[in-house]
Amino acid sequence: MNRSNPSLALLTGASLFVSFHLLLLVFQRIGKLPQASTESKLMPDLRFYTTAGCHLCDQAWAMLEPIAKRKRLRVELIDVMDDLAAEEQYAEHIPVVTSTQRTDNLYWPFTPEDIYRWLM
Predict the structure, then answer these.
(1) Count: domains in the chain
(2) What value, to the nearest 5°, has the Cα angle with vertex 78 and ends 107 and 81?
(3) Same domain, yes or no: 58 and 110
(4) CB of 57 within 8 A of CB of 86?
(5) How confident is the model at residue 43 (pLDDT cuts 50, 70, 90)?
(6) Biggest alpha carbon distance in the chain?
(7) 15, 59 in Cβ contact below 8 A?
(8) pLDDT confidence of 34, banded at 50, 70, 90?
(9) Per-residue confidence (pLDDT) for residue 20, from 0 to 100
(10) Which is an annotated Pfam family here (predicted)?
(11) 73 and 14 in one domain?
(12) CA 33 to chain centre
């Protein structure tokens, strides 16, 4: 860079910055780079309380997961054995689905239709 002309150095740096970001956008559009995801920073829409070896939880998850994907809902899986508060509240009732948008919970047994109705 030209040290005798600070304006030229600043302009060159700005041009490189803009060029880099334009290139990044092009690569993202053609699918060569993954889109930046903010999902990990966002609160989940639903929480699914479960634990290892729970066959009812497996059945419930098999119904809930495709619905959540279809509706683009973020689901946090919580093992009640790893969370003392969750264990005290839900261990006797799992599988349980809670929502950040609702005050009532969805307790097992439920069907896909029950899930859809509960999400409305």
Answers:
(1) 2
(2) 95
(3) yes
(4) no
(5) confident
(6) 75
(7) no
(8) very low
(9) 54
(10) Glrx-like
(11) no
(12) 19
